[in-house]
Write a structure and sequence with these properties.
GO terms for molecular function: zinc ion binding. With 127 residues, the chain is mainly α. The chain contains five helices and no strands. It has two domains: 11-88; 90-127, no CATH class. Helices cover 60% and strands 0% of the residues. It binds zinc ion. Residues 92, 94-95, 97, 112-113, 115-116 line the site of zinc ion (ZN).
């Protein structure tokens, strides 16, 4: 991995990187508050469908579930940082098209454009 030094000072890329890294460490400290380690998070299994008689299990899991959701965002941020390094930041991972700046401002680690993220939600991964 090569680091290009920009003599003009902080480039938008550096700024973006620090925004992402700041968010990442904020999320990690919130995950710690749930008392869960990232390793545990990746082992958690939410295979059962929510809705039929599993409410109590879900309630018990809420803290872990929230921690896992946060951890998923951490992973998305990691991927965004990798795309930043690769010069592919801001491009949709599915169709390769540009992600609108408006969306990136709302979610700086967004990996998909709006239509692709919408069809992914419809295809499964119901929340
Ligand atoms: Zn797309």
């Amino acid at each position: 991995m090569s680091e290009t030094i920009d003599p003009s000072g902080a480039s938008p890329r550096d700024e973006l990187r620090s925004v992402l890294e700041e968010k990442r460490s904020e999320l990690l400290s919130r995950i710690e508050q749930f008392g869960a380690s990232p390793t545990e998070m990746s082992n958690l299994n939410f295979g059962k469908r929510i809705g039929d008689g599993t409410t109590y299990a879900v309630e018990r899991m809420t803290g872990a579930y929230q921690a896992r959701t946060l951890y998923e965002t951490v992973k998305e941020i990691d991927q965004a940082l990798a795309r930043l390094d690769a010069g592919a930041y801001g491009l949709c991972e599915v169709c390769g098209g540009p992600i609108p700046g408006e969306r990136l401002r709302a979610i700086p680690w967004a990996a998909l454009c709006v239509p692709c993220s919408g069809s992914l939600v419809r295809a499964g991964a119901r929340r």
